[in-house]
Amino acid sequence: ADNKVLLEENSRVVTLNGSLTEAVCLFGFEAQIVGTDVTSTFPESMNKLPKVGHNRSISAEGILSLQPTVVIGFTGEVSAELSAQLQQAGIG
Prior knowledge:
Layout: E1 13-15, H1 18-26, E2 33-36, E3 53-54, E4 57-58, H2 60-64, E5 70-72, H3 80-88
Parallel strand pairs: 1-2, 1-5
Antiparallel strand pairs: 3-4
């Protein structure tokens, strides 16, 4: 599987891990994050965003309701079912 994603100014990003959220912000894409998991509490602005659940128990519906173009999570933390649902929805 090709796990490469391109983040752009118009990307709508959902992050599924606090460390990944911090990294996306560090790389300058804080404004593109539209939702996070509950472990994403830094930077402070992430606390104002919709939460899609805990990184190990997230439903596709919560993510899809935010209309993301990119979902970023660790392979070992995202269930195969969730990954398949996101791929079927055309989300990288």
